Amino acid sequence: MKNIETSDRTLWVTGAGSGMGRAVARSAARAGYRVALSGRRPEPLDETSTLIASEGGSALAVPLDVTDQESVLRAHERIVDHWGRVSHLVLSAGLNTPQRFWRDQSMTDFSRIVQTNLVAATGVASAVLPSMRQARDGVVVFVSSFAAWRFNPGSGVAYSASKTAVSALAHSLNVEENRHGVRACHFCPSDTDTDFLAMRPAVPDAEARGTMLTPDDVASAVQFVLDAPAHVCINEFVLSPTGAQEDPRP
What we know:
single chain; alpha/beta; Rossmann fold; 7 strands; 44% helix
């Protein structure tokens, strides 16, 4: 039996156990969304759910491996049984590795990164798309990277390739599904102070982190996309801290 909620906006966030995903989930819950939380590890999801509940929001922890499509479909079915259709989706799950260059990468890591960043994002979006199309309403936010908007060799071969391809997911979804009320955003944040930085070959120190975006900065921008009127499609959103871009002039 479905829970009775006052809001008809249900957001599903992958990668919701920490960092950007957790911040996005909390922001949306404060804005009145019912939030389904997904990630590999149940404990961080429960922590996010507890934080949301303490702030008066409504959350449902739905652990899953985004690279397992059967797990994705089961998770989607559980959310629908609990609250009804997913109206908004934020795909925040991501992966990289310190061994990210041609000289040291392994094909095992390459495949894992592409599966997580690209194939899994396609799978989750595909799960929610039929109900969005039927309702003629829906928002999908593909959390990509500044490196997908402007090439950055330090991001790594697999990460850069997979996140650049995410741009095609968002743009093709808009071309095909805008007519059905579905809107996708290729969301490209620059360096953000999260646990994801531990995947870098050289982990930034406190001083470097102090110049970066915060998860709450990212969440505020994503919230703007989620809350856009139904007739507005924010195709791409690039976010960076002040001073992050180099001046090409001599």
